[in-house]
Amino acid sequence: FIVDADKTVGIMKPDPTGSVIAMTRPFWDGIIDLIDFDRSTGIASGFTNIYTAGNGNKAYGLEFSRSGNRLYAGEFGIGKLFQFDLTASNIPASRTEIGDLSVPGEAGQLQIAPNNKIYVNYNVFPSGASFIGAINNPEIVGTGCGFVQNAVSFGPFTTSNGLPWHYNHLTTNSSLPELGSDTVLCSGTGIELNPQVSANGATFLWSDGSTDSTLTVSQPGTYWVTYQLGACPDKSDTVSVT
Q1: Element (H, E) at 170
Q2: Residues of the chain by 3-state class (helix, strand, coil), percent to 5
Q3: For residues 74 and 53, is the Cβ–Cβ distance under 8 A?
Q4: What is the pTM of this model?
Q5: Contact criterion met (CB below 8 Å) for 76 and 94
Q6: Three-state SS for 138?
Q7: How many helices (H) and strands (E) does the chain have?
Q8: Residues forming beta bridges with residue 131, ordered by sequence position
Q9: Nearest to residue 53, comparing CAs of 90, 35, 88, 78?
Q10: Is there a contact between 43 and 35 (Cβ–Cβ < 8 Å)?
């Protein structure tokens, strides 16, 4: 795949399984592509375009949620953040605005951290910003993912677009399901239990007998999930909902 030298600015990020790569091409009409990647051969194939702005809204930074089910992208031209639901039957149509920086600036790089939050660096003209934003619940579909613009303060120092890349194989490629801490809910409300592991090629078994990758519950009780991938042994986790 070859592009003009003056049009190669962009970001490439692998999903947690390493089998899909997302790529932005901001100076090619704000394009976002998904690319299949074979880890055993190193061959990339199957370009799928999920967004083309064509109006100066230059998609740049992007990041996957820990499960790989959600993809987030920021845009230079309008300083907004968007979510794509990669489990949707129509991924391009799932594009949802989840944050507006409300400043005459740019959304820069996005980076998932060990706490599973996705941090967002942005530039405010003319001198930069003194905060970075955070997507607090990246697995939640839509605006419930909880973007906070001024999440982390840098005091007198300013930030502009970039973030360091963090790779931790214990969390990025973990096969250990993690349902989180025991939870207390108000009566009449529900919660989606998500084991935070890849669903690609995996099998799940929940305490109610269901086999979906997530489970929504609204009743008190103890819930468990068993996760199995390939020839690896079963792994499980349990959570109590009060």
Answers
A1: helix 169-172
A2: 5, 45, 50
A3: no
A4: 0.66
A5: no
A6: coil
A7: 1, 17
A8: 153
A9: 78
A10: no
Q: In the block, which residue shows the tokens 């605005």?
A: 97
165-184 pLDDT, tens digit per residue, is: 765 544 444 567 888 888 89
Instruction: Sheet with 118-124: list strands edge to edge.
Output: 105-112, 118-124, 131-135, 147-153
Poorest-confidence range of 58-62, 130-134, 159-163, 207-211?
159-163
Confidence at residue 141, expressed as pLDDT on a 0 to 100 scale: 93
Sign of CA dihedral 200, 69, 21, 93: positive
Cα separation, 131 vs 128, whole angstroms? 9
CB–CB of 33/49 below 8 Å? yes
Tell me if residue 81 falls in helix, strand or coil: strand
Q: Output 232 or 79, whichever has higher pLDDT.
A: 79
- Lookup: tokens for 68: 């790989």
Give strand ranges (E) for the chain. Answer: 12-14, 20-25, 31-38, 43-52, 59-64, 70-75, 80-85, 96-100, 105-112, 118-124, 131-135, 147-153, 191-193, 202-206, 215-217, 221-229, 235-241
Q: Give the pLDDT mean for 195-202.
A: 78
Closest CA to 118 of 92, 83, 91: 83
Residues 125, 108 contacting (CB under 8 angstroms):
no
Q: If phi over 0 gives left and psi between -120 and 50 gives alpha, with beta otherwise, what is residue 163? A: beta
Residue 151 amino acid letter? A
